């Protein structure tokens, strides 16, 4: 339990760090951060704080979908945006294409590792992930369709509000799924340890549990 709690908190904090890095890169961010950035521009509220506010309002949408939040859901709302805001406050300006691209890719990798950590802790989905899975359960729509509908909607609204859409948005969309898929089996706290190899099983290839890997399609 202690390991799972630590993994949850570390994962959520790192998620905010990774998102902050993509913002600082200035080459485009993921759809939800585009929306948070657009709302931040319009209201003057920091992007991180706006991410927390968005998480709260998304959680309210769980009510008609009959979703129940877990500890991880609440922690997600409180920690991701907060850590993002702190990092944005202290992160030095990034200038020049090579540096921007490096920070962008680094941020995407950090988000993927962070997703593996908090999903692998099994304390409940984040509010945005839960919205998509809730739509799937309530209406029977495929997960990919729910995700596309939600993320394209928030991306469009965020872009109209002034959020940054660019090559980073595209790279995030293409890279985050495969990277999380790689991270989950390594960080899943329910992964069964490989049994000791004996003479009878020496020729058997042991594969890691894939239970958590199925969650990669809904993260982050």
Mean pLDDT: 87
The stretches of 5 or more residues where confidence is low (pLDDT under 50) are 194-220
Structural class: mainly alpha
Terminal Cα separation, in Å? 23 Å
The ordered H/E elements are: HHHHHHHHH
Percent of residues in helices = 55-70%
Count every beta strand, where a strand is a DSSP E run of 2 or more residues: 0
Share of β-strand residues: under 5%
Total helical elements: 9
User: What is the gyration radius calculated from CA atoms?
Assistant: 18 Å
Instruction: Give the biggest beta sheet.
Output: none
General form: globular
Q: Can you give keywords for this protein?
A:
220 residues; mainly alpha; 9 helices
What does this structure look like?
It is a single chain. This protein is mainly α. The protein has helices at residues 2-25, 31-43, 47-60, 62-65, 71-90, 97-120, 127-139, 143-160, 167-187. The two termini are 23 Å apart. Mean pLDDT is 87; it is low at 194-220.
Can you give me a brief rundown of this structure?
With 220 residues, the protein is mainly alpha-helical. It is built from nine helices and no strands.
